[in-house]
Amino acid sequence: EVQFRPYRTDDFITRLYYETPRLTVLNQTWVLKARVNDSERNPNLSCKRTLSFQLILKSKINSPMECSFLLLEGPYDDVKIHPVIYHFVFSNENNETDYMALPIVDSVECNKLLAAKNINLRLFIFQIQK
Description:
Elements: E1 2-8, E2 16-19, E3 23-25, E4 28-36, E5 51-57, E6 65-73, E7 86-90, E8 100-101, H1 107-115, E9 119-127
Antiparallel strand pairs: 1-2, 1-9, 2-4, 3-4, 4-5, 5-8, 6-7, 6-9
GO molecular function, one term: metal ion binding
InterPro entries: ZFTRAF1
Keywords: Metal-binding
């Protein structure tokens, strides 16, 4: 289970983003980052809100690591997420995924997540053996 915590950038016009503490999965250290409306300039002026996330490998690895991963709702949340499995090959040179849309059902569900102090989700990572 991961917990996204809200942070703000140091820009002149601050932007809200979310980040998890470091977590250990598959004997590697990972971090998840999330942003609102793909960091548009004024997401507060939009009635349609989205969250996108990025998975980052913080550990150094000896060989490329092919993984599948997905995010699901947390244990006590009632937010509706459609499960989507993402694939990525992590290496020391390519250690972070692109930002991918969190598959939330609609903008109302996204607003429920944003209204909470922290966002609790479950992360599943599977290593693909060749």
